[in-house]
Design goal:
Blueprint (H helix, E strand, L loop, with lengths): L2 E7 L4 E8 L3 H9 L1 H4 L10 E6 L7 E6 L5 E12 L3 E9 L12 E11 L2 E9 L3 H9 L2 H10 L1 H5 L5
Antiparallel strand pairs: 1-2, 2-8, 3-4, 4-5, 5-6, 6-7, 7-8
Organism: Vallicoccus soli
Protein name: SRPBCC domain-containing protein
Family: Belongs to the AHA1 family.
């Protein structure tokens, strides 16, 4: 399988990515819920992630870093809102420092993850990022967010091989 859809919508200020898996819903949920699994796919392959904190409960916090090929390290954070295992998650996502403090001047996005049974033993995951403004969306897309997310999701497939029900 592969990423089956990438849909930027400037008017709605959203970027929606859809992937389908030959795996049960619960296994796809683990991509988000298991920090060791998360760090094997979150971010592009040339920027592997390390998860420093992982509290995926409403009001919790996730702090991670991604290290680039030149040894540069970039920190990010999530603030989970709605968490409905194994089918849904909403969170705020942003750049920050090693302590998870949000970076000033960088936009944050609201992310909604929907995981649903697609029939025939398949699962569809839809990740929708909503930006606070069209300018913020342009900034993030110019930074390579769409390509980075596509590459990140591309890394999820090998993690789920052999997990079909």
């Amino acid at each position: 399988m592969s990423v089956v859809g990438v849909a930027p919508d400037r008017e709605a200020r959203t970027l929606t990515m859809t992937a389908e898996y030959d795996a049960p819903v619960e296994q796809v949920w683990r991509l988000w819920a298991d920090p060791r699994l998360l760090e094997r796919w979150w971010g592009p392959p040339t920027y592997p992630a390390t998860v420093h904190e992982h509290d995926l409960r409403p009001g919790g916090r996730v702090v991670y870093s991604m290290t680039g090929p030149e040894g540069d390290t970039h920190y990010g954070w999530w603030r989970p809102g709605r968490v409905d295992p194994p089918t849904g998650l909403e969170l705020e996502d942003g750049f920050g420092d090693a302590d998870g403090t949000p970076a000033e001047g960088m936009p944050t996005t609201r992310v909604r993850v929907d995981i649903a049974d697609a029939g025939g033993g398949r699962t569809r995951m839809t990740v929708t990022s909503t930006f606070p403004s069209a300018e913020a969306m342009d900034q993030m897309l110019q930074m390579g967010m769409a390509e980075g997310m596509r590459e990140a999701l591309g890394q999820t497939y090998p993690l789920l091989e052999g997990s079909a029900a």
